[in-house]
Design goal:
The protein is an all-alpha fold and 176 residues long. 59% of the residues lie in helices and 0% in strands.
Length: 176
């Protein structure tokens, strides 16, 4: 598809430059026949000269890369910072300590919210399941057996399904 576009654009360019272009279909197959040198009117071209690679004289290439990760650079680089500007190494260390304190506060705050949300979800889900069990039993007691059994079994199935799922995930010990 792209080859056809390239050919089309080349033909349009050639026609706009005043070159006549003959449009024909490509051959169905192409056969390359060997041509003997005696029957050819072509001149033999000399073989290209063989260039032997010369060893480079006096060229040495050396590359050194250093990297570090974490809030503090290695001690030799920290010492170089200190030589560059007095007190710079101390400011870098204080910045790293402040960042670590901020990170600890953030993680403690996030963990407290996660714990609180898990507890709220546990209480709400447990309360809803217990309410479903009691409401199903109450409906069965008042002769609404189909609705009562459906609600009771749905709440019981939700509790058991959650317990089985958590057990298979390995988050809680198996029920006794």
């Amino acid at each position: 598809m792209q080859r056809a576009r390239l050919i089309r654009s080349a033909m349009i360019s050639a026609e706009s430059a005043g070159i006549s272009v003959k449009r024909c279909r490509p051959p169905l197959f192409q056969m390359d026949l060997p041509v003997s040198p005696s029957s050819s009117n072509l001149k033999k071209s000399p073989a290209p000269p063989v260039v032997k690679p010369q060893p480079a004289l006096g060229t040495n290439l050396a590359f050194r890369a250093e990297s570090f990760s974490g809030p503090l650079p290695p001690p030799d680089l920290l010492e170089a910072y200190e030589r560059t500007s007095s007190g710079l190494a101390d400011r870098i260390v204080k910045m790293a300590e402040a960042e670590q304190a901020h990170r600890h506060r953030y993680e403690a705050h996030e963990l407290s919210w996660v714990y609180w949300l898990q507890m709220v979800g546990l209480v709400m889900g447990g309360g809803l399941a217990i309410a479903g069990l009691f409401l199903g039993a109450w409906l069965v007691y008042h002769d609404k057996t189909l609705a009562g059994f459906t609600l009771f079994l749905g709440a019981l199935g939700g509790l058991l399904g959650t317990a089985i799922y958590k057990h298979r995930q390995g988050k809680t010990p198996p029920p006794v």
